[in-house]
Amino acid sequence: MAKVAIVMGSTSDWPTMQKAAEMLESFGVEYKAQVVSAHRTPELLTEFSKTAETEGYSVIIAGAGGAAHLPGMIAAHTHIPVLGCPVRSSQLNGIDSLLSIVQMPKGVAVGTLAIGEAGAANAGLLAAQIVALQEPAVRDAIIAFREKQTETVLANGQLEL
Ligand SMILES: Nc1c(C(=O)O)ncn1[C@@H]1O[C@H](COP(=O)(O)O)[C@@H](O)[C@H]1O
Q: Which structural domains are found in the chain, ordered by start?
């Protein structure tokens, strides 16, 4: 089965990025999580990005906060799709992370998700949807998840006002 890489700039990002991991687990998608920083471990970033394909990854989820150059720098080194997760920062509440990730120059793409845990969860969902193009079992699990979600919302929406 295709693997998903979850990388993050710091261990402090894990509570957010864990939401991506949980989503992938719920669909039975194999993943590996690790810390890689464009700023603090630049050589590891280059090695990780250049070997991602031979390591069997088909999607990379990259989360970082503040000056969040990680997703863009990974995308610069590989053609594998990169999903960028802006982690909420303490100073600017994640607006800095979002703007750092989303404003890529034409020709190098990062698919940017929303700030924080919901965005990270959706990165896991989107990565699973990409994997599902080749994996019928994952496709079935995603369809079942969406149907159950719709049923729950409809059931909970019966308010007596
Ligand atoms: N934005 C980046 C990068 C990068 O983009 O390469 N490396 C670390 N960081 C971010 O710095 C924040 C604070 O990190 P610490 O909590 O370790 O001080 C984290 O949100 C991390 O993603």
A: 4-155 (3.40.50.1970)
